[in-house]
Amino acid sequence: MAANAAVASIVYGVPMRAALSFIAITTLLVALPAAAKPYTDTKKRFTIELEAGWELAPIPADTLGMNFRKKVGAVPGSLHVMVRPLKPAETTKQTLDELEGGFTAELGYKPGGDVPTSVGLLPAMRRTFTVYASGDATTVRAVELYALHAFGHAHVLHFETLEKSRSAFSRDLDRMLASYQAVIGKGDNAPLVGTWINLDGGTDLLLEEDGSFKLGPLAGGYKAERGGLTLYPAQGAAPESFSYVLDGANLTVANRNVGEMRFRRSGAARYKSDGAAPKVAGPLTREQLIGGWKVVDAASTEPLRLQLAASGSCAFGPLAGRWRYSTGRLTITSTADVTITYAASLTEGKLVLSGGDLERELTLVRE
């Protein structure tokens, strides 16, 4: 009982004794419900960690992803994951509009709004709306759509339950969204992600995880596949296809129209040639912090996890909020508006945190 009360005070921002540290939290977490179960899509499109009680609930003829289901009391909640290739220069708004279109004719349809968020470690867009359940005005369905563009593919996570029961699923949904990882297309696209400096004095090239690019005045979407790079300008210009060669920090793209363009990567690579995150080494930067970490030196059956998203959102055990990093200081501001700053450094590829509310150093390794 006391352990659960302490955890609740962390989540909801109730003041605690200054001596309570994240080391103590690792012990308290043992009292929480059963650990999440990792799920890897059979077609290797995504991975997600299912919270306790969530089970597979396949939908007949569904070839786009997988459906998951849980009941709280007698009320079901569902999370349907759908993955497909990105359309040229597609935006997350267009992705959401396409899926929401199937609901607009339902009885009781009431639009909500769009809010920027993050899914896993990448930026996403969240859209909410409601419709009647079975045409009954006294029973309302709450629908949430999360659109994520990653490595040449659109990922949509569709959560739905009765509006009156939405809060019962909040913790599960937040943690499952934080655990979501886009996998398909990562091997081809991830090594190209970053800012590329033109070695011949021309315009620099920016390639992002969400499939967007910038090249001088041009911007839009791109697709990389087996040594080919195609840029789709949003301004309506014709797409331009290139062959490319990636050699460490050097990128060469070429076609008949523009000839050859040579670039060199600015800063550290976010991914290795196989799409995996590189091992961190040397002076710590914000870019190197982005990703998943777990505590390795705490007494707990389940390690305490730290998730730092590129969008600035974060999760640290039961905490959620925003993070920032500057000159060796990692600052986390919880959703309850509690701010804690730690000294952060790298030691042999391990992240070491100290200060703040910690009684001793905390060591984490990348997941």
Key descriptive features of the protein:
single chain; 367 residues; mainly beta; Lipocalin; Protein Transport Mog1p, Chain A; 3 domains; eight-stranded antiparallel beta barrel; 6 helices; 26 strands; 12% helix; disordered N terminus
Give a description of the structure.
This protein has 6 helices and 26 strands. It is globular and about 65 Å long. It has helices at residues 2-12, 22-28, 92-100, 170-179, 186-189, 286-289; strands at 37-40, 46-50, 55-56, 65-72, 75-85, 110-119, 122-133, 136-150, 153-162, 181-182, 194-198, 205-207, 212-215, 218-225, 228-233, 240-247, 250-255, 259-266, 291-295, 305-308, 313-316, 319-326, 329-334, 339-347, 350-354, 362-366. With 367 residues, the protein is mainly beta. It folds into 3 domains: 1-32 and 279-367, Lipocalin; 34-186, Mog1/PsbP, alpha/beta/alpha sandwich (Protein Transport Mog1p, Chain A); 194-266, Lipocalin (Beta Barrel), CATH 2.40.128. Mean pLDDT is 84; it is low at 1-33.
CATH top level of the largest domain is: Alpha Beta
Unreliable spans: 1-33
Radius of gyration: 22 Å
In the residues, how many domains can be counted?
3
Mean of residue pLDDT values: 84
Oligomer category: single chain
In this structure, how is the largest beta sheet organized?
8 strands, antiparallel, barrel
- Provide the CATH topology of the largest domain: Protein Transport Mog1p, Chain A
Q: Looking at this structure, what is the CATH superfamily of the largest domain? A: Mog1/PsbP, alpha/beta/alpha sandwich
Number of helices: 6
Structural class comes to mainly beta
Counted beta strands: 26
How far apart are the first and last residues' alpha carbons, in Å?
A: 31 Å
Assign an overall shape. globular
Helix content: 10-25%
CATH architectural grouping of the largest domain: 3-Layer(aba) Sandwich
